[in-house]
């Protein structure tokens, strides 16, 4: 934790489209008592809602992360340096149901305010869940969404989480 400075969301600067689409996020959730699972994601957003800085994440129901987010109050969303791309690909393919992804990646688990994250991250957003909203095909206006994103009808759940603090590597 000594390697990170704590900043408020208002101080955070980024190139949002690069950060989300190209760099990807790692969503880290508590798994069991003192372990954690990492899942790569890049369908996401950050913004302001209900008077709070928030993160929007979209998780398909079959992900282990979906179960873990549902069973915990808080999680982290982290950005890594390009040097960790291989690990991020792995965290986007393997499931924490049958793999200890953090161990396989050689990540060092840390906790801040009871929220798990990895020491190898560059930027960590500590988040507390505010709302969960299932995406419904009734709401899709562009027909491409249903056809292209959901041939299996495995519609994402949208999670809206308050960004409590941001940790930035010193
Ligand atoms: C670049 C990338 C982005 C991804 N984005 C998402 C996403 O936004 N939502 C989602 O449900 N799955 C997404 N995935 C798929 C999950 O990361 C993948 O299914 C993972 O194995 C789930 O891990 P878990 O079962 O441990 O939660 C993405 C995968 C990659 C490689």
Notes on the protein architecture:
- The protein is of the alpha+beta class and 170 residues long.
- Helices cover 20% and strands 42% of the residues.
- It has one domain (4-169): Roll (Pnp Oxidase, Chain A).
- The strands form two sheets. Strands 1, 2, 3, 4, 5, 6, 9 and 10 form an eight-stranded antiparallel sheet that branches. Strands 7-8 form a two-stranded antiparallel ribbon.
- The longest helix is centred in the first third of the chain and has 8 residues, at 16-23.
- It is globular and about 50 Å long.
- The termini are close together.
- The site of flavin mononucleotide has 19 residues, from strand 3, strand 5 and helix 2.
């Amino acid at each position: 934790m000594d390697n990170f400075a704590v900043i408020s969301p208002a101080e955070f600067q980024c190139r949002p489209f690069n950060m989300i689409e190209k760099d990807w996020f790692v969503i880290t959730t508590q798994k069991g008592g003192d372990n954690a699972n990492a899942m790569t994601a890049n369908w996401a957003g950050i913004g302001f809602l209900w008077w709070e800085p928030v993160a929007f994440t979209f998780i398909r129901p079959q992900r282990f992360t979906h179960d873990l987010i549902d069973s915990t109050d808080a999680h982290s969303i982290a950005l890594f340096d390009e040097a960790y791309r291989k690990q991020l690909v792995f965290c986007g393919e393997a499931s924490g149901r049958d793999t200890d992804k953090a161990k396989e990646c050689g990540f060092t688990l840390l906790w801040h305010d009871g929220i798990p994250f990895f020491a190898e991250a560059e930027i960590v957003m500590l988040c507390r869940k505010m709302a969960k909203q299932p995406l419904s095909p009734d709401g899709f206006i562009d027909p491409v969404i249903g056809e292209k994103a959901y041939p299996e009808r495995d519609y994402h759940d949208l999670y809206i989480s308050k960004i409590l603090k941001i940790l930035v590597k010193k």
